[in-house]
């Protein structure tokens, strides 16, 4: 029985809803972690955690928001795409930007013979696109257009900001969990934590156990959620690329060639940004959906 055709508009809508639902889970875990730690540690410890967490969060958010593109480009040692060898690359992006109404992002190239690309930045006015030497050398024009349309889709859909926000929240959960566990350890070593008696003491002890369990499990849970959000955004960008190009054939051809890639060695922080990151892990532990699934979805559009 032939499968029904997929609407790229509907796919974009569903993926956006799923992504907001997943980031809501991260927020709930963060709030639960704050409440449990505050109740378990008592007022003094709670305010210490709040103050330290707030300072760290402000620095982390500010650096991540304003410097995300620079950090991503520096981490892969990319260079600006200037010169005649990158004329087609620039021309394709200019054409896509004119068609979509987006400002042209800064263009970079990283030295790697695998086919891949990524976009980063805080908004369309401060965005970058980086492709590998392999993508420029191995992809014909219509397939390179499909790859660049995918990356421009991340910019147009504000995925670059969304993924930065997700990374910040996941980082905050990890930092707060570490502060709590280290404070608890230091308190037990120094004997500085005051003891309570009666029902309140028992209740606080129960919350302490819950807090320890939550502090250990929360970073794992939100990391899995971050991976799920990354996979959803890739599906949405594939759908948006079809909207830009009015055909999925270019992106399908590029993804099929990427299936022959060997895994690229990149920073874990940058990996979710790439067009594709083939790995052998199960889907739950990947930053991207399996290429076969993405190709099958595109073939139905």
Describe this protein with a few key phrases.
6% strand; 9 helices; mainly alpha; 67% helix; 301 residues; elongated; 4-stranded mixed beta sheet
Report on the structure:
With 301 residues, the protein is mainly alpha-helical. Helix content is 67%, strand content 6%. Strands 1-2-4-3 form a four-stranded mixed beta sheet, sandwiched between helices. Strand 3 (117-121) and strand 4 (127-132) form a beta hairpin. Helix 1 packs antiparallel against helix 7 and helix 2 (43-75) crosses helix 6. It is elongated and about 70 Å long. The model is unreliable at 193-199 (pLDDT under 50).
- Average pLDDT, all residues: 76
Helicity level: 55-70%
Class computed from helices, strands and strand pairing: mainly alpha
What is the strand arrangement across the widest sheet? 1-2-4-3
Total DSSP helices: 9
Report the sheet-strand fraction.
5-15%
Provide the domain count: 1
Radius of gyration: 22 Å
End-to-end span in angstroms? 17 Å
Outline the biggest β-sheet.
4 strands, mixed
Overall morphology: elongated
SSE topology string: HHEHEEEHHHHHH
Please provide the count of β strands: 4
Q: pLDDT below 50 for ≥5 consecutive residues: which ranges?
A: 193-199
Write the layout of secondary structure elements.
Blueprint: H1 8-41, H2 43-75, E1 79-80, H3 87-100, E2 106-110, E3 117-121, E4 127-132, H4 133-138, H5 141-156, H6 159-190, H7 198-245, H8 249-258, H9 291-299
Parallel strand pairs: 2-4
Antiparallel strand pairs: 1-2, 3-4
Helix pairs in contact: 1-2, 1-6, 1-7, 2-6, 3-5, 5-7, 5-8, 6-7, 8-9
């Amino acid at each position: 029985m032939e499968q029904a055709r997929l609407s790229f508009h509907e796919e974009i809508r569903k993926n956006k809803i799923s992504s907001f639902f997943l980031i809501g889970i991260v927020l709930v875990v963060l709030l639960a972690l704050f409440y449990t730690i505050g109740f378990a540690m008592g007022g003094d410890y709670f305010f210490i955690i709040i103050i330290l967490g707030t300072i760290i969060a402000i620095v982390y958010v500010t650096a991540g928001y304003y410097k995300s593109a620079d950090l991503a480009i520096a981490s892969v040692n990319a260079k600006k795409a200037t010169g005649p060898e990158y004329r087609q690359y620039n021309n394709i992006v200019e054409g896509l930007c004119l068609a979509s109404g987006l400002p042209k992002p800064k263009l970079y190239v990283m030295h790697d013979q695998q086919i891949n690309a990524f976009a980063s930045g805080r908004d369309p006015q401060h965005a970058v696109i980086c492709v590998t030497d392999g993508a420029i050398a191995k992809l014909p024009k219509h397939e390179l257009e499909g790859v660049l349309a995918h990356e421009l889709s991340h910019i147009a859909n504000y995925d670059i900001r969304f993924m930065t926000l997700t990374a910040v929240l996941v980082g905050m959960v990890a930092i707060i969990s570490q502060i709590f566990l280290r404070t608890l350890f230091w308190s037990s070593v120094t004997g500085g934590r005051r003891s309570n008696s009666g029902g309140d003491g028992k209740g606080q002890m129960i919350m302490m156990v819950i807090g320890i369990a939550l502090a250990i499990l929360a970073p794992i849970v939100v990391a899995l959620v971050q991976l799920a959000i990354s996979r959803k955004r890739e599906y949405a960008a594939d759908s948006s690329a079809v909207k830009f190009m009015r055909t999925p054939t270019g992106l399908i051809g590029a993804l099929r060639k990427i299936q022959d890639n060997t895994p690229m060695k990149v920073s874990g922080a940058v990996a979710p940004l790439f067009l594709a990151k083939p790995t052998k892990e199960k889907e739950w532990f990947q930053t991207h959906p399996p290429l076969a699934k993405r190709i099958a979805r595109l073939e139905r559009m």
